[in-house]
Amino acid sequence: MIEWFTIAQVVVAVAGGILCLALGFAGRKPNDYTLGVVALVEVLLVAQLVSAIVSPFAGNSPSGDPLEFYTYLISALLLPAAGVFWALVERTRWSTVILGVVCLAIAVMVYRMNVIWFVQGA
């Protein structure tokens, strides 16, 4: 993992989550903005996956359990797809709220992946 990229991911995910929650509670159905921010979060997660695969070969290996790290990463990769699927099937204001919750959950998961990669271990 790259620390500055992780911070950028968390900031984007939190901003997207707040945007989706605000629009959802205001009664807005899923639109291009809410789906687009979730798609951006997914693209950043794919870039994180590529970075996590390449980094150990460059000498930057995780200090914590790699299995736990990759479990978080794969789970985080599945969340936006599930949220977008939900939003496209059920186009209500609550789908927009779900997209916000997905973004905030990904922010927490990315932060936890950062802790596993850099802080754990002896």
Q: What would you say this structure looks like, in words?
A:
This protein has helices spanning 3-25, 32-54, 66-89, 93-118. With 122 residues, the protein is an all-alpha fold. Helix 1 packs antiparallel against helix 4, helix 2 (32-54) packs antiparallel against helix 3 (66-89) and helix 2 runs parallel beside helix 4. The two termini are 18 Å apart. The model has no long low-confidence stretch (mean pLDDT 94).
Features:
mainly alpha, 4 helices, 0% strand, single chain, 122 residues
Helix content: over 70%
Give me the strand/helix succession: HHHH
User: Ranges with pLDDT <50 over ≥5 residues?
Assistant: none
Radius of gyration: 15 Å
Number of E-type strands: 0
The termini sit apart by 18 Å
Structural class: mainly alpha
Dominant shape: elongated
**What's the rounded overall pLDDT mean?**
94
Helix segment count?
4
Query: Biggest sheet, open or closed, and with what strands and sense?
Result: none
SS strand fraction? under 5%
Helix and strand topology:
Elements lengths: L2 H23 L6 H23 L11 H24 L3 H26 L4
Helix pairs in contact: 1-2, 1-4, 2-3, 2-4, 3-4
In short:
With 122 residues, the chain is mainly alpha-helical. Helix content is 79%, strand content 0%.
